[in-house]
Amino acid sequence: MAEEADLLSIGKHCSLASCKRLDFLPFQCSHCKEIFCLEHRSPEEHKCSNFSLSDVHVPVCPICNQIVKKSLNEDVNQQVERHILSGCKSLVVGKPKKSNKCSLKTCRQHGLMPFVCQECNKNHCIRHRHAEDHFCTALRVPMVSCA
Questions:
Q1: Which of 3, 10, 71, 91 is the most buried (most CB within 10 A)?
Q2: Which intervals hold domain AN1-type (predicted)?
């Protein structure tokens, strides 16, 4: 009988009043901090009072088709209106700059992560990451004349 009591203390009951299922791998809601079963773990499923859906609407200017920066304090329509009144110049989200460009002049690759040569300290793509592959200037040995 003592073993049976120990097994019941392992799991937790779902906090939803209509469920109360004993779950051995319960989930804690990050919004209300209550414990829920797999079926009711999402804030929508247990109708979490502390959860509010974030606005996932990305405002796009109807004139220039550029993405307009959003502000948490201001309405999306007001943001787009300010953008249009500026002549479609302000509040524009710029394109992300490509980083980790290969330093080899004939290569146009941009890597996800940098490969910096330990010899010349230049960044290269995965294909040219080895000193021999990018004709590293540090490997070139000056010719010594034998006289």
A1: 91
A2: 8-56, 96-144
Asked whether the predicted pLDDT for residue 14 surpasses 60, the reply is: yes
Q: Is the pTM of this model over 0.85?
A: no
141 falls in which pLDDT band (50, 70, 90)?
Answer: low
Contact 62, 71 (CB under 8 A): no
111-to-42, 77, 107, 115, 128 alpha-carbon distances in Å: 36, 38, 11, 8, 11
The H-or-E segment that residue 23 falls in is: strand 22-23
**DSSP state, residue 12:** E
Specify the amino acid at residue 117: C
| Fold of domain 10-52 | Zf-an1 domain (4.10.1110)
The H or E element that residue 65 is part of is none
CATH architecture of structural domain 97-140: Irregular (4.10)
CA distance 32 to 23: 18
